[in-house]
Amino acid sequence: MSSDQDLIEGCKKGKHSAFEALYTKYAKRMMAIALRYANTTFEAEDVVQESFIKVFEKINAFENKGSFEGWLKRIVVNNSINNFHKTSKERGFEDCTEIEIPDEKAISVLSELSNIDLMSSLKMLPLGYRTVFNLYVIEGYSHKEIAELCKINEATSRSQLSKAKVLLKEILLQHSYVTHGK
Predict the structure, then answer these.
(1) Residue 88 CB partners (closer than 8 Å, separation 6+)
(2) CB atoms within 10 A of CB 42
(3) What is the tally of structural domains in the chain?
(4) What predicted TM-score, i.e. pTM, was given to this entire model?
(5) Which residues touch 121 (CB under 8 Å, ≥6 apart)?
(6) Which range of residues forms the domain containing residue 10?
(7) Are 10 and 76 contained in the same domain?
(8) What is the pLDDT of residues 26-55, one digit of tens each?
(9) DSSP letters of 84-97?
């Protein structure tokens, strides 16, 4: 398999085989990211497809200053957030200025869960909670960045994260992924 650099150069020259190889190499990983934000597999597939179209249109803008995968991942996350804004009739966020104190024990067991258990548990969270949780805990965005991306205020982001952690703990307990002692 060619290196990313070779594939990127091939894409810049318009070689279809390079486009196909990049897609084949990264599509599954990007689909996993899109699924964390989408309500359906169909939505996630659309996000991934739109993301690769954007990558191929903007490939000349990639300057090798960071990893290609990181650049692609950011495009997928941004497209996922854009999809959220386009498809949600209601924002999915509770607008609140009161910040609850987060329960840090609520997510301490996440490292012990299988990916399948975690993904199915996250899918049970309301969309706003799930979006903020994904952006903050999994993607590493700050509350300020989340507020800008989701067009909410920072306090709402903090509150959504706190509520997501509490609800996620309840979901994990209900499905016996964790016990009350953890």
Answers:
(1) 127
(2) 9
(3) 2
(4) 0.71
(5) 113, 168, 171, 172, 175, 177
(6) 4-87
(7) yes
(8) 999 999 999 988 888 999 999 999 999 999
(9) HHHH-SS-S-----
